[in-house]
Design goal:
It is a single chain. This protein is α/β, with parallel strands linked by helices. The protein has one domain: Transcription Regulator spoIIAA. The protein contains three helices and five strands. A five-stranded mixed sheet has the order 1-2-3-4-5. α1 runs parallel beside α2. The longest helix is centred in the middle third of the chain and has 16 residues. The chain is globular.
C-alpha cells in the first residue's frame, strides 16, 4: 500500500493505493493521525484501493474520531463498490461520509 499526502488550503487529502489489510493498516492509521495533527479536515481518496479488510475500516474509524476530536472531519472519496459494501455491512457508512465526485 502507498499513501501520498497533498495539502490544499484548510484540508489534507490522502491518496491511498493498493490493498489495505492486517499487514499494513497500521501505516494507514499513522498517516491519518499525522495528517490530523497538521490539519483537522482530512479527505481519504480510495480510488486506488480495491480491497479493505476490517483492520482498514478500523483505521478509518479511528481517524474519523480523531479528526472530530480536533473539531474537523474525515470524509472518503472515490470508494469502489467492494469497499463501499464493507462500509455498509459494518455500519460505518452512517458514521463516515462518502463524497461522490
Amino acid at each position: 500500500m502507498e499513501v501520498r499526502e497533498e495539502k490544499r488550503e484548510e484540508e489534507i487529502t490522502l491518496y491511498v493505493k493498493g490493498r489495505i489489510d492486517a499487514s499494513n493498516n497500521g501505516m494507514l492509521q499513522e498517516k491519518i493521525m499525522s495528517a490530523v495533527q497538521k490539519c483537522e479536515n482530512i479527505r481519504v481518496d480510495l480510488a486506488g484501493v480495491d480491497y479493505m479488510s476490517n483492520e482498514g475500516l478500523r483505521a478509518l474509524f479511528i481517524g474519523k474520531k480523531l479528526a472530530m476530536g480536533h473539531g474537523g472531519d474525515l470524509v472518503l472519496l472515490h470508494v469502489c463498490p467492494y469497499v463501499r459494501e464493507a462500509l455498509y455491512l459494518s455500519g460505518m457508512d452512517r458514521f463516515i461520509s462518502i463524497v461522490e465526485q
